[in-house]
């Protein structure tokens, strides 16, 4: 079985998709890692392998992992070993938290919108903890994430926006606190 270690926990890679491409980016075949054959027959040529956790969505409840091998050469009547492929999280993890001292002052009209490009997630249910959400990074670095807070706090209507910059694979903690 395949298992990858991350900073916080182990990721089961058995359901990851393994794709084989020619060097010119033509897909040759694909398999589910957990049921993939140990040996694969292909014609001689230059290839690379791409591994992905799932089809990436603009906003998701699970992280997206991806890794790509170097280009390798398959020779006639020879077994070619592909080097280990390292998959890394490509999405941006976003978590909304509220300081306990703020919660009693929040009205029932709170609406928090997190946006990255045209993708957005809206949280309105303060009776439940906000889920962890993952955004597809538009670029490897300097993705601009906009957070808009709308609603009543201690009887006063609030509407403000904050912006953050995050790189793929990063964790963005969006914390709302009570200020004196």
**Distance separating the two termini:** 53 Å
Could you say which overall geometry the principal axes of the C-alpha atoms support? elongated
The whole-number mean of residue pLDDT values reads 91
What is the quaternary state of this protein?
Answer: single chain
Strand content: over 45%
**Helix coverage percent of residues?**
under 10%
* H and E order: EEEEEEEEEEEEEEEE
Poorly predicted regions are 1-8
Any descriptors?
mainly beta; 6-stranded antiparallel beta sheet; single chain; disordered N terminus; 180 residues
Description of the structure:
- The chain is an all-beta fold.
- Residues 1-8 have low confidence and may be disordered.
- It starts with a strand and ends with a strand.
- It is built from no helices and 16 strands.
- The strands form four sheets. Strands 3, 4, 5, 7, 8 and 9 form a six-stranded antiparallel beta sheet that branches. A four-stranded mixed beta sheet has the order 6-13-10-16, with no helix packed on it.
